[in-house]
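Table 4 source record.
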Amino acid sequence: MKIATWNINGVKARHDTALAWLKEAAPDIACLQEIKSVDEAFPAAAFEELGYNVVTHGQKGFNGVALLSKSPLEDITRGLPGEDEDVQARYIEAVTGTAQGVVRVGCLYLPNGNPVDTEKFPYKLRWMDRLRQHVAERLTLEEPFVLLGDYNVIPEPRDARNPDAWVGDALFRPESRQSFRALCALGLTDAVRAANQADDVYTFWDYQAGAWQKNNGIRIDHVLLSPEACDRLEGVGIDAHVRGWEKPSDHVPVWVELAA
């Protein structure tokens, strides 16, 4: 069972790219972030033609997340609990069935948090605290839970080609990294690091200053696994080549394979 995450940076701008990648990678579940589309405008038909069930939590112009699944999705949750006045579309969760039972998938687009001297950074930290509380509750279900998406957190210096350039940035601030560690400390496994301890593992390359050509990247797209999901982990990958396609997103897909 292949489950993937990708911040596509606009479903309209990356429509053809998304379809090409889905045909090539053939994930059983694809979690998309930053779709930048309201639900009714999301081009679901094109993905349904490839055999996917589609559920979205959209927002006009920015944010927005989507789940594409070859199997039916149930117990769909849109939005992260804990702050009723938060209208930003950044989280969607659902359950799908497998031969070994259900798998729960949470797709997230964590706030960027910049500039740090504005309300955006406290909002990021509050969002992360809400996420930790929600995940702690979900883990009591003792089921395979895959929590994946654009976390907008660089966990360690080795997760950036030039960590000094990110000092003071919300993605690399000590508070953000501590919150990420607290989330993992609930018992979640960082799938990429479980499989690959190399220093040059990145998922994002900025559009500016030839970052892709210079491999000046960062790792901010993560797949975290509950113990029950980690027990079934069979493979991990990053489709970095997609960054070199025409009209690419600045992020690339990250995926895991679980025993079905």
